[in-house]
Each structure stands twice: as C-alpha cells, then as structure tokens.
Specification:
single chain, 79 residues, alpha+beta, Alpha-Beta Plaits, 2 helices, 25% helix, Dimeric_a/b-barrel, Transcriptional regulator
Length: 79
C-alpha cells in the first residue's frame, strides 16, 4: 500500500471548503486543518504508487483554492 502525506496551502479563508472537497476523493483517508507553514494535512493511500501520484497531481493540485502542495511519500516497509 502506497501512502503519501500532502501538505497544502490554500487561499485565505478557504480552508473549510478545501477540506470538504478533499473528503470526497477516494484515496484521501484523513484530512485535517493545521497551524504553521501549511494550512491542511491530507493522508492518502492507494494500492498503486503511480495511481496515488496521479490523484495528487490531477485531483488535488488542480483543485480550486489550492495554492501549493508538498508531498511526502512513505517508504514501504518502514512503518
């Protein structure tokens, strides 16, 4: 199982709407607003690493009100 943590910056005041939209993406397993350098943290899982990458690029990074992302991909076997 491929796991990725996506740190998200969004437009000011749009955190709740972005969080709600993220909840409708199948691969998103957890999503939470954060304090600090990033506004939102999303945990994603998929059986295929390539599909996970595609979901991040085409479903998250293209989402309205998202300004930037930083993706951390977990190393399989180190959990």
């Amino acid at each position: 199982m491929a796991v990725a943590y996506v740190l998200i910056n969004c437009d000011l005041g749009q955190e709740e709407s972005v969080i709600e939209n993220l909840k409708h993406i199948d691969s998103v397993k957890e999503v939470q607003g954060t304090f600090g350098a990033y506004d939102i943290l999303a945990k994603m899982e998929h059986t295929e690493k390539e599909k996970l990458r595609e979901m991040i690029i085409w479903s998250i990074r293209k989402m309205e009100h998202i300004r930037s992302t930083l993706t951390l991909v977990g190393i399989e076997g180190q959990n």
